[in-house]
Amino acid sequence: MSTDPETVTFIEDQLAGLRVRTLRMFGEFGIYCDEKIVGLICDDALFLKPSSADPELFARTELAPPYPGAKDYHRVPGDALEDRDWLGAAVQATADALPAPRAKKAKPHS
Q: Which of 37, 40, 43, 74 could be disulfide-bonded to 66 (CB atoms 3.0-4.6 Å)?
């Protein structure tokens, strides 16, 4: 099963005000905040990366893999997706706790 584009649009709308973007990945979607990949949207569910962010903030989530064979992420339940304040705080806390992305090496010109 794949994610309905309306789900992605809903999550993006809930996160208005944050520097968030989504990108299609492997038939599903990656979600970025402050140019860091903070989670995945798979099978119409949001999964946030585990991080050193305050564990109490993620008490509303359950650990589950976003796809078969993946490590556990924080699966965000529907009621938490509806809570714009909580969702924004959880996504921003995840981004803040993750390291900056590595700079890509420039390809040599031939």
A: 40
